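Quick illustration, no need to memorize.
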Amino acid sequence: MTEVPSQEQAKKTGLAAAATTKYPNYLADRELCKRFFEEFRDLSGTLKYMEILRRIACRELKLFILQLDDIAYYGQLYLAQRIQMNVMGYSEELCRVIDELIPQREIVEDMVDYLLVEAKAAGQSLPSLLTRRYELIIVPLSGYAEPIPLRHLKGSLIGTLVVLRGICIAATAVRPKLSVLVSVCEVCAETTFQQVVGDRLTPLMVCQSQRCKLNNTIGRLLPQYKASKFTKYQDSDFKNFPRMFLEVLYHVQLV
């Protein structure tokens, strides 16, 4: 008699197949994602993700929602599994593909637009994190989106895309978090960009431009918070469902 594999074993087999190599080939997967964004059509025949990019370029949309089920339906199931198993590593690669495909619009509305115009005139480029006007949201595969309790959150799941089940017992207010600090030298007027890595930043106080070094001057950097990039940040505390609550919930479902 042949033993039928359980659903849990099938999930483990599928996730193990995603790790085909020890180190993912980001360049090849980036090309696959680019072709997927350019060619995928929804049920109505519309180029789904190219339309989202057009609306983001026109400042009509701020969220880029990527459905991993769409990638699996496109015929790249292993790619969708690799993204789910290494979502922290693939998020930046996906943003690079989006930055490459998003249409360029000559819209000047804020300080970042003015900096972008000045950088293009000078033949320079701004940090991609500063010019991104969207937030990437990745929706997990429907077959692997079953919520897990907090007690089952192990170290092997760090960096993966998981759905948790628990109770939120405390949450702070949504606060701005600095991600890119823009500063201008008061002597040479050069712009300096500092990307924040982690939760702390030591701002540069002295200009490091070649003009100040050649003139042997010490230019003081003045922060420009209107041109800097801030993201939404919130701390939340979760705990497991109490056993009594689970028993009551199970009883209600049976009734």
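The longest strand covers residues 175-185.
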